[in-house]
Amino acid sequence: MNQITFESLPIPKVVLEGIRDADFKYCTSIQEKTLPISLSGKDIAGQAQTGTGKTAAYLITLFTRLLNNPKPESKRNGRVAPRALVIAPTRELARQIEIDARLIGGHCKLSIICIYGGMDYEKQRNQIKDGADIFIVTPGRIIDYYKQKLFSLKELEVLIVDEADRMFDMGFILDLRYLFRNCSPYDKRQSMLFSATLNYKVMELAYMHMNNPVKVMVEPGKAVVDEVKQLLYHVGLHEKFNLLLGLLKKESGEKVLIFCNTKMWAERLELLLKHNEYVAALISGDLHQKKRIRV
C-alpha cells in the first residue's frame, strides 16, 4: 500500500515547512483518513488514540483553514476574538498541543496562547486581553475568563475538542456544552472532535453541536501505532523492581515513563530508582503545576 505524503495534499507551503520541521514524511492512518475530508472544510468526528497522529491531523487542518481565509483587520472591531479554539481535558495535554502547534505552525505567523489552571491567574488574564489567533485551553479556566467578558467566541472559525471521552469521564461535559453554546453557529465554523471511543455520548455531543460531522475511524488493528512494541511480563510483586532495573539496563533509554497505580508506589519507586543512581522525578495529581512543568 502506497503511503500518502503531505505534499500530495492541498496544504499551504508554510504549513508544509512546519511539517518538515516536525520530521513528518508520510501520513499516519488517522491522517490519511482525516485530512482529505477536513481540508475540504467538513466537520470530523474521529476515533483515534494517543500516538496515532491525531494532533497533527487537526492542527494541519486548523492552520490551513485560517491561512486560506485571512481575516482583515477591519473585521476585528478591536475585540478579543480568537479565530480558533482547541479544548483539551488536562493541562498536560493542552501544553503538549501548544508545543506541537508552535512547531507545525512555526512559519504561519499566527499567534497562540495556552490557558489552563495552576498557573499565574493575572498573567494569563493579560495574555487573553492582548488577544491571539488560537486559544488552546482546558475548560474550567477559560470559562472563568469568558464569564468576565474578556473575549468573545462569536467569530470562531475553527473549534477542536481533543479526547472528548475523557471530558465525560472527568466531569467536564457541562463546561464543554457551555462553550459550544457560546461559540459561533455550527454552520459558520469548522468543528473537529477526537476521542479514543466514539460511543453514544460522544456522538450525541457531535451531532448536537457540529455540522453533519463525518465519522472517521482507525481500523481496530491500527489503533496502536505500528512502531510501538508491546510486551507483558507476568511477575510476582517482590520481583517487579529487579525486573524493572534489568529492563532499564537492557533498553538504555534516555527518557523513560513509568506508570504506577497509586501515589504511594510512585513515591517508593522514585526513591528506589534514585538509590540505584537513576535520575528520577515524581509526577502526581497534587503536584503544583509549575513543578509538574519543570519535571
Task: Present the secondary structure layout.
Blueprint: H1 13-21, H2 29-38, E1 44-47, H3 54-68, E2 84-87, H4 91-104, E3 112-115, H5 121-130, E4 134-137, H6 139-147, E5 158-161, H7 164-169, H8 173-181, E6 190-195, H9 200-209, E7 214-217, H10 240-251, H11 263-275, H12 289-294
Helix pairs in contact: 2-3, 3-4
Main beta sheet strand tally, sense and closure: 7 strands, parallel
Number of strands: 7
Structural class by sheet pairing and helices = alpha/beta
Identify the strand order in the major beta sheet: 3-4-2-5-6-1-7
CATH topology description of the largest domain: Rossmann fold
Rg from alpha-carbon coordinates: 21 Å
**What is the helix/strand order?**
HHEHEHEHEHEHHEHEHHH
CATH class of the largest domain reads Alpha Beta
Total of DSSP H or I helical runs spanning 4+ residues: 12
Shape: globular
| CATH architectural type of the largest domain | 3-Layer(aba) Sandwich
Overall number of domains? 2
The CATH superfamily of the largest domain appears as: P-loop containing nucleotide triphosphate hydrolases
Kindly estimate the percentage of residues that lie in beta strands according to DSSP: 5-15%
The poorly predicted ranges are: none
Please give a handful of descriptors for the protein shown.
295 residues; Rossmann fold; 42% helix
Overall description:
This protein is an alpha/beta fold. It has 2 domains: 6-222, Rossmann fold (3-Layer(aba) Sandwich), CATH 3.40.50; 237-294, no CATH class. It has helices at residues 13-21, 29-38, 54-68, 91-104, 121-130, 139-147, 164-169, 173-181, 200-209, 240-251, 263-275, 289-294, and strands at residues 44-47, 84-87, 112-115, 134-137, 158-161, 190-195, 214-217. Strands 3-4-2-5-6-1-7 form a 7-stranded parallel β-sheet, with helices on both faces. Helix 5 links the parallel strand 3 (112-115) and strand 4 (134-137). The longest helix has 15 residues, at 54-68. It is globular. The two termini are 41 Å apart.
